[in-house]
Amino acid sequence: MQYQVAFNIEDFMANYWQQQPCLLKQGMQAFIDPLSAEELAGLAMEPEIQSRLVTSRGQQWQAELGPFENFDLLGDSHSSLLVQGVDHWHPEVAKLAEAFQFIPNWRFDDVMVSYSTPEGGVGPHIDQYCVFIIQGEGKRHWRVGKKQMLKEFAPHAKLKHCEAFDAEIDVILEPGDVLYIPPGCPHEGYAVEPAINYSIGFRAPNAKDLLSGFADYLLRHDLSSKRFADPKRSATQEFGRIAENDSLALNKLMQGLLNSPEATAQFLGEHLSENAHSSDIVVLIGSEDELGYSELHACMEQGIALTRCAGIKALYLDVLPYQIFVDGQAYAIPNCSWALAKTMCDKSVVDSYSLRAFDKDSKQLDWLIDLVNAGYWYFDGQCDE
Ligand code: SIN
Ligand code: CO
Questions:
Q1: Cα gap 186→80, rounded to integer Å
Q2: What pLDDT does residue 384 have?
Q3: Among 77, 158, 87, 100, which residue's Cα sits nearest to residue 125?
Q4: Contact 175, 140 (CB under 8 A)
Q5: Domain 9-202 - what CATH class?
């Protein structure tokens, strides 16, 4: 199934994205749930998938982290099961996220899916991320306030709530409705009837994390950096003082590192392509299915589509020398296969037509073989030699 939004994207970006919450009534075209509550429960049993069960019986908030062996806690009412990174494990849920590819991949975080019994929800809270909440089966009552500072507190060690707020949006979502909530807007949602919600979440790096990541990058790659030098210093009378010109010179020294477009681009590619959630990757290296040139050419010859493993981030900057970044690693791409590499980052599936158009005789496809053998892409079908 191909999912599509049914709202005006230009209008949404100009007036709402990162600015104000909005209800996109029937924002998904002919919406059909990509997964069932049973499938969600199955995912919540897996140790590598993050899940939570939140209950609020008798005003008493409780939260348990998965993996779950049973769902005794999930009562007939007042409970919610939430599973993170579902797009990494469920290709149909990954397809749902594709409807939101008008925002670049480096901004995308994951799809969180929740199943709530009547009155179930996680309580009033504020997220630092922005999210599109899609209503799947059932109905849920949502309240969203405008961006504001509110007192926050923990009604349970694993939950953070905010104080009561006035709602700008107060609505009962029905299947196919979409709620957009920018960072900092308080919100709360309680199921009216058993309900599934899909949260398409976006992240925004903060400057502090970027800087510390950049420092790690410099250390990891052992990049030489300039050392402070002060050959024309005059003698000081103030032994304890860091003089203003010294502090400015030290600041300039630090900024010099950030002013290297090559180093920062390389860092951003590696850093932003790192996966925050585990994925269903099947590594072929050393297995009998390991791909070589003859198998690769056979797949291309037979027109088998090349699919990116669900949830894998593949990014590029479109500057020379060409490279793509996958799961924190850079892969050098020869100029002759750049068009293919870009398509592989932009599209989840490279169809047989695009692959056929590619020069199959090229011997410069080691990078593609490496990516397939690492499990990041796969040929969707049997390639017979
Ligand atoms: C949900 O309960 O489905 C979404 C939770 C949230 O508001 O972040
Ligand atoms: Co939230």
A1: 19
A2: 55
A3: 158
A4: no
A5: mainly beta
Mean pLDDT, the chain cut into blocks of 10 residues (385 residues total):
96 98 97 97 97 92 96 93 97 96 97 98 95 98 97 95 97 98 97 98 94 92 84 95 96 91 93 89 90 87 89 94 96 91 95 72 82 94 58
- Determine the atom of ligand 1 nearest the C-alpha atom of 198: 3
- Whole-angstrom distance, CA of residue 28 vs CA of residue 198: 12
Q: What is the distance between the alpha carbons of residues 277 and 311, in angstroms, rounded to a whole number?
A: 8
Contacts of 343 (CB under 8 A, 6+ apart): 350, 354
How many C-beta atoms lie closer than 10 Å to residue 63's C-beta? 20
- Atom of ligand 1 lying closest to residue 121 CA: 2
Ligand 1 neighbourhood includes 197 CB (under 6 angstroms): yes
CA-122 nearest atom, ligand 1 = 2
pLDDT tens per residue, range 175-201: 999 999 999 999 999 999 999 999 999
Residue 189 CB less than 6 A away from ligand 1: yes
> Using an 8 Å Cβ cutoff, are 279 and 312 in contact?
yes
pLDDT of residue 347: 95
DSSP 308-359: EPTT--EE----SSPEEEETTEEEE--GGGHHHHHHHHH-SEE-HHHHHHS-
Distance (Å) from CA 141 to ligand 2 centroid: 14
State the amino acid at position 109 in one-letter form.
Answer: D
CA angle 253/269/335 to nearest 5° reads 115
Q: Token pair for residue 329?
A: 């690693």
Residues of the chain with CATH 3.40.366.30: 261-385
Whether ligand 1 lies within 6 angstroms of the CB of 122 is answered as: yes
CATH for 261-385 is 3.40.366.30
Which ligand is closest to the CA of 52, given by its number? Answer: 1
**Ligand 2 center from residue 340 Cα (angstroms):** 38
The ligand that comes nearest to the alpha carbon of residue 140 is 1
What pLDDT score was predicted for residue 301? 81
Type of residue found at 154: A
pLDDT for position 11: 98
Distance CA 369, CA 23 (A): 45
Nearest residue (by CA) to ligand 1, atom 5, is 122
- Residue among 113, 161, 199, 200 whose CB has most ligand 1 atoms within 8 A, to mutate: 199
